[in-house]
Amino acid sequence: MKLYVSVDMEGITGLADYTHVDSSKHNYERGRQIMTDEANYVIAEAFEKGCQEVLVNDSHSKMNNLLIEKLHPETQLITGDVKPYSMVQGLDSSFSGAMFVGYHARASMKGVMSHSMIFGVRQMYINDVAVGEMGFNAYVAGYHGVPVLMVAGDDQAALEAERLIPNVTTAVVKETITRSAVKSLTPVKAGELLKEKTALALKNKDLVKPLVPPDQPTLRIEFANYGQAEWAALMPGAEIEENTTIVRFQAKDILEAYRAMLVMIELAMRTTFC
């Protein structure tokens, strides 16, 4: 069995605010060590339970956070920026399952450091379904016929996963108090939970079906201000919905929608606020 593991940072044990996930801040080095340890708990348990190959994709910010020299020696790591498929780079139909570790809730929802790709996004939709990073990534996995077996993160990420993916296993390592405060397990206890939940997810893998995306999906992204929408709409094929900050793009499939989303948010980040 081949397992794909996408590792974000905001949902990692004990990480409560931007000082833990921003590489320029004082808590970041602690955060990336805990992130690496958390990935290792999942990887080691996957190998223990019979996986022959585990591919890990660093999925936070510049995507160079995981300490490769401290990762399980039998894993392979995708690291660095720019990636054509970002948080799901390297995922294809050869994998039997995927796991999302360190994930968070989507933009405009309760949850520690909740957001969708950038903080200028209010909502993202595939047709009429509101999705965040988790949902979009699960759709890409589903396009390849790969089920998302486990999501680990805060309690709100777990709720989002359970609403989206029937029979998914969730591992709650911290509970949201506010968007920048949590009640967290210690790393040791979180490690025990992650090993237990990884084993359970692999045992129950046949109960989870891939989240199949719609054919020719319509991508709609609502931005925080009109300037961001104007920048995003410069992408060929994109247009602003009248009297809104929503930019629409008609895609031929979910892969094109995903890459369009990446381009639109990169453009939107060029907006200034003065």
TrEMBL record:
Enzyme class: hydrolase
GO molecular function: aminopeptidase activity
Keywords recorded for this protein, A-Z: Aminopeptidase, Hydrolase, Protease
Record's keyword annotation contains Ubl conjugation: no
InterPro entries linked to this entry: DppA_N (IPR027476), Peptidase_M55 (IPR007035), Peptidase_M55_sf (IPR036177)
EC annotation from Swiss-Prot or TrEMBL: 3.4.11.-
Designated name of the protein: D-amino peptidase
Organism of origin: Cytobacillus purgationiresistens
